[in-house]
């Protein structure tokens, strides 16, 4: 065989590739069928120790078992997940690199023109949770919900100090200001814990929270004025949503994606394993305890959700 291969001008390995090609056997197809044949890197778009990190690590336990490979966690926190998303976009679309970020990483950040990717640069695989995005205030304030807060501000002519976690909620409140004539003074605050301290200390009249407020609502110290999105909250389902109040809605989902162009067998295997892992009892116990549990959304559902959120964020920007 070596003599034949040399005669044809091939190395032995090249000769095998030629034979495989003649038989219609693709190296790529074999690699896809064998996927995964090595460890998978999961790049988390947030700092270690937070709840996104906890979810990524918890879902990796059943995921590793289902795929038969180790899941390696690396961190590229900052810019609302955009640093991680940018890094993953540049990776090969082979299924060995995943990114954990939020829906706004893909649906909002590109609209600001400050990132080098678009929502179409990714294959979406799973939405595993929805944060309890809500506007909250102290219970002792002279209002009981978002509408009565707006009415109080209008009747007294009092500006409202607003604790903001990022540009999305600031733009959302700007839209409310334009619709109602109420003046809001945004105060940028880093992190949920700092937000709780600012609300409890009376430094802001109300603020945006992704979940840390739940314990204070349960203790009676805080109230939920409204859910930030169009979906009811798990912990406080009686709270109105911004959508139901007629304002632009902003939802915060936890999403897992990969570089665009995954081979179909690889994408299907990853998606199936991720959705099953999100249904694992250990993962469900974690997200239910934190009131962020939702029925896991597969790739197509996640893509449709990202498209809807993008449309909503464009509406926010247009106001």
The total count of helices amounts to 13
In the sheet with the most strands, the strands line up as 2-1-3-10-4
Round the mean pLDDT to the nearest integer and report it.
90
Spell out the helices and strands N to C. HHHEHEHEHEEHEHEHEHEEHHH
The structural class is alpha/beta
- Describe the main β-sheet briefly: 5 strands, mixed
Q: What is the name of the CATH class of the largest domain?
A: Alpha Beta
Radius of gyration: 24 Å
Instruction: Give the low-confidence spans.
Output: 1-28
How much β-strand is present in the residues? Answer: 15-25%
CATH topology of the largest domain: D-Maltodextrin-Binding Protein, domain 2
Total individual domains: 2
The CATH H-level homologous superfamily of the largest domain: Bordetella uptake gene, domain 1
Helix content: 40-55%
The outline comes out as: elongated
Which architecture name of the largest domain does CATH use? Answer: 3-Layer(aba) Sandwich
């Amino acid at each position: 065989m070596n003599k034949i291969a040399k005669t044809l001008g091939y190395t032995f390995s090249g000769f095998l590739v030629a034979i495989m090609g003649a038989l219609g056997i693709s190296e790529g197809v074999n690699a896809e069928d064998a996927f995964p044949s090595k460890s998978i890197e999961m790049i988390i778009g947030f700092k270690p120790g937070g709840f996104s990190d906890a979810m990524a690590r918890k879902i990796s336990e059943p995921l590793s078992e289902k795929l038969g490979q180790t899941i390696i966690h690396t961190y590229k926190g900052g810019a609302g997940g955009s640093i991680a998303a940018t890094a993953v976009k540049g990776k090969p679309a082979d299924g060995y690199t995943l990114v954990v970020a939020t829906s706004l990483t893909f649906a909002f950040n590109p609209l600001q023109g400050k990132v080098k990717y678009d929502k179409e640069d990714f294959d979406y695989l799973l939405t595993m949770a929805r944060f309890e995005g809500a506007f909250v205030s102290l219970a002792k304030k002279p209002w009981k919900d978002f509408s009565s807060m707006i009415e109080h501000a209008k009747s007294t002519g009092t500006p409202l100090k607003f604790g903001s976690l990022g540009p999305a909620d600031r733009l959302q409140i700007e839209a409310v200001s334009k619709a109602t004539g109420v003046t809001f003074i945004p105060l940028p605050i880093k992190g949920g814990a700092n937000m709780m301290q600012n609300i409890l200390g009376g430094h802001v009249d109300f603020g945006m929270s992704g979940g840390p407020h739940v314990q204070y609502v349960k203790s009676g110290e805080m109230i939920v004025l409204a859910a930030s999105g169009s979906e009811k909250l798990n912990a406080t389902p009686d709270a109105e949503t911004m959508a139901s109040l007629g304002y632009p809605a902003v939802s915060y989902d936890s999403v897992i994606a990969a570089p665009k162009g995954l081979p179909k067998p690889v994408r299907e295997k990853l998606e199936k394993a991720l959705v099953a892992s999100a249904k694992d009892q250990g993962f469900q116990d974690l997200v239910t305890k934190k009131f962020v549990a939702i029925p896991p959304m597969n790739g197509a559902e996640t893509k449709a959700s990202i498209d809807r959120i993008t449309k909503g964020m464009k509406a926010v920007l247009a106001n």
